[in-house]
Structure formats: C-alpha cells, structure tokens
Amino acid sequence: MTITIRQAEAADAARIAVLLGQLGYPTGEARVRARLDEWLADPRSVLAVAEVAGEVSGVAAFHAMPLLEHDERRGRLVALVVDDSCRGRGVGRALVAEVEREARRLGCRELEVTSNRAREAAHAFYRGLGYDDVCARSARFIKPLAKP
C-alpha cells in the first residue's frame, strides 16, 4: 500500500468532513471548507492529508504555539483521524511523522496531543510512537466561553 502525504486543499473538504464524522465530530463540507480557509492561511499551522489509492484516507491538523517561558515553540497535534478502512496500516504513523517534521521546521521544542480517555487504542498508538501521558504532572482546565 502506498501512502502519499500532502498539504490539504479546499477540494478535500468533503472527505475531511467524513473523516471528522468517523472521529465523532460530525460536520458538513461547507463548515470544513470554511475551517480549511483559516488553517491554510496560518503560517504556523499545518493541515496534512494522507492519500491511499488516490483517496484522502487520513488528516492531521497541527499548530505551533509561541511560548513565553521558552524561546522555542510548542507544537500541538490538534486532530488526527484515519479512515476506518485504513487503520492499522501505517497511515496514522505517516501523518504523525509529517507533523513531527513540520514541528521541527517551525522551531518546536516538543509536540503535544490530547486524547479522550475513552480512546484507549489511540493512547496505545501514541505511546508506541514515544509519547508520554503526562496528566499526572500537568492538569488541563477548560472553560467554555459564551459568544459575545
């Protein structure tokens, strides 16, 4: 199986919407297209897709955040999803490798990813790639903000 990694394009919106639905975030093509416009215009963000047999079979969204406490940036793998039919075949690994290359290029000192505690297979995947679960040393707080 040949996996080709490339930058996402607006024409990928429909397939990315399907992939996001498989991840548990159902959305429509128009909404994804609007999000792609923002992602693709941001020089510190990378949106990579994996093609298998000419079809988009995975997507990874990455952002490099500047840090105040360090000179380097922190990379954040914001989203990673591989089509159900391609899981376990190296697509996710290829996407993460591309994200790690981009993180280094953008001056990141580390790469973080968050994953719902219920996604045990994803946690095993990340551990297998050398990522450590650091929740015991660093809490994560979220507050929903009301729209203005």
Q: Which helices and strands, and how do they pair?
A:
Elements: E1 3-7, H1 13-23, H2 29-41, E2 45-52, E3 55-66, E4 73-82, H3 91-105, E5 108-113, H4 120-128
Parallel strand pairs: 4-5
Antiparallel strand pairs: 1-2, 2-3, 3-4
Defining key terms:
148 residues; alpha+beta; Aminopeptidase; five-stranded mixed β-sheet; 4 helices; 5 strands
Account of the protein in words:
Helix content is 32%, strand content 28%. By secondary structure, the protein is α+β, with helices and mostly antiparallel strands. The longest helix has 15 residues, at 91-105. It has a single domain, classed as Gcn5-related N-acetyltransferase (GNAT) (Aminopeptidase, 3-Layer(aba) Sandwich), CATH 3.40.630. The mean pLDDT is 94. It has helices spanning 13-23, 29-41, 91-105, 120-128; strands at residues 3-7, 45-52, 55-66, 73-82, 108-113.
Briefly summarize what is shown.
This protein has 148 residues and is an alpha+beta fold. 32% of the residues lie in helices and 28% in strands. Strands 1-2-3-4-5 form a five-stranded mixed β-sheet, with helices on both faces.
Give the beta-strand count.
Answer: 5
What does the overall shape look like? globular
Q: Looking across the biggest beta sheet, what order are the strands in?
A: 1-2-3-4-5
Give the CATH topology. Answer: Aminopeptidase
Content of β-strand: 25-35%
Main β-sheet description: 5 strands, mixed
What is the mean pLDDT? 94
In total, the number of domains comes to 1
